[in-house]
Amino acid sequence: MSIIPSSAPLLFFDSGIGGLSVLKAVRAALPNAPIVFAADYAGLPYGTKTEAAISARVPALLGRLVERYKPRLVTIACNTACTIALTHVRAALDVPVVGTVPAVKPAAEATRSGVIGLLGTDATVRQTYVDKLHKDHAPNITLLRHAAPELVSAAEAKMRGEPVDTSVYATAMAGLMDQPDGAQLDVVVLGCTHFPLIEDELRAAAPHVKFVDGAAGIARRIHHLTKDQTWPVDPEEGTFVTTGSVARLNTLLPSLSGFGLTRITSL
User: Fold this and answer.
1) 3-state SS string over 68-100?
2) At the N or C end, where does the chain have fewer CB atoms within 10 A?
3) In a 10 Å sphere around its CB, with 0-12 CB exposed, 13-18 middle and 19+ buried, how is residue 163 labelled?
4) φ, ψ for residue 140 (rounded to 5)?
5) How far is the C-alpha of 175 from the C-alpha of 177, rounded, in Å?
6) Are 41 and 256 in contact, with CB atoms under 8 Å apart?
7) Helix (H), strand (E), coil (C) string for 30-49
């Protein structure tokens, strides 16, 4: 087996900056890991795209990214991309691939009322993959689903320091709570990696609800898969690569710097 150089990065991939919520958990577990974070801004948003479009786009982009950066591991930090294209990506790449799926199991374990909710994009909430998660991990639990693509825009705006109409958070929560059995809802799965970035705002709109996401579980998985590998002695600059215009990232730079992503480039 070939030795993985300490400089080989962890590659994170998302449609935008939602995957920063996953990167935060991984940074805590592996503070010296070299990081490349790729955002497909040319393709954002994924939640309104067809399954066929995502299945074709994501493996192709990741193939180019792996060829350029030669990562030791790839994390698809996007629920929509994972629920649709994870199998295709694993077939196309010759490196370990960690996926991000809605945290239905932790939500089922945390509920006291037996009613949980899933907030996600249109593409995520309609997937049969979610049906399987429900059947396998929460068969006796009521799962309410609501597509809230507007929260992706809200998270992106927040990270750019732009104002957001706070009614968007209450509207999203009402999409779950106004459904039959919604009054008993006590745990909500943040089924898009953008959504933990606005968890405080969602909690303000629904203080009685517990929110769960998969970031901690992903960090544990990456730590396990890389446990025998070496890392740089000191933390390094992280790289942020976009498929869109670098110039359009200017307002994001302060947020990216907070995650150690100070080298900005395009694919």
Assistant:
1) HHCCCEEEECCHHHHHHHHHHHHHHCCCCEECC
2) N
3) exposed
4) -105, 15
5) 6
6) no
7) CCCCCEEEEECCCCCCCCCC
Residue partners of 129: CB distance under 8 A and separation at least 6:
83, 101
Of 48, 261, 250, 258, the closest CA to residue 162 belongs to 250
Residues 6+ apart with CB under 8 A from 139: none
CA 140 to CA 146: how far, in whole Å? 19
At residue 142, what is the residue type?
T
Question: Which residues have CB under 8 Å from 9's CB, separation 6+?
Answer: 33, 34, 35, 36, 69, 71, 72, 239
C-alpha–C-alpha distance, residues 159 and 256, integer Å: 9
Question: Is 78 an active-site residue?
Answer: yes
Q: Would the pTM count as exceeding 0.85?
A: yes
Q: Which of 78, 172, 188, 261 is catalytic?
A: 78
DSSP state of 67: H
Work out whether the CA dihedral 153, 160, 223, 12 comes out positive or negative: positive
Candidates 192, 197, 218, 261; catalytic one: 192
- Residue with token string 């509207």: 171
- pLDDT tens for the chain, residues 1 to 267: 568 999 999 999 999 999 999 999 999 999 999 999 999 999 988 888 899 999 999 999 999 999 999 999 999 999 999 989 999 999 999 999 999 989 999 999 999 999 999 999 998 998 898 999 999 999 999 999 999 999 999 999 999 999 999 999 999 999 999 999 999 999 999 999 999 999 999 999 999 999 999 999 999 999 999 999 999 999 889 999 999 999 989 999 999 999 999 999 999
How far apart CA 36 and CA 38 sit, in angstroms, is: 6
